[in-house]
Amino acid sequence: MKLSFGEKIRNLREDRDLNQTELGKAVNMTQRRISYIECGQFDPSLEDIIAFCHFFKVSADYLLEIPSHYRR
Is the pTM of this model over 0.85? Predict the structure, then answer.
């Protein structure tokens, strides 16, 4: 089953036992913004994606589901 961007963020957050407020503080976002991203009601900006990648130590390819055949 393919997970959405928001579902991946929620899973990564929950795996680290963080609530939305704690994650928001760590990546300089509000709890509401985190909630909207996780629920798919708000598309993350490039800066948001970069912040999540750095914090969770994952690639943008993983978060965005970029297939390997698109990578150079």
Answer: yes
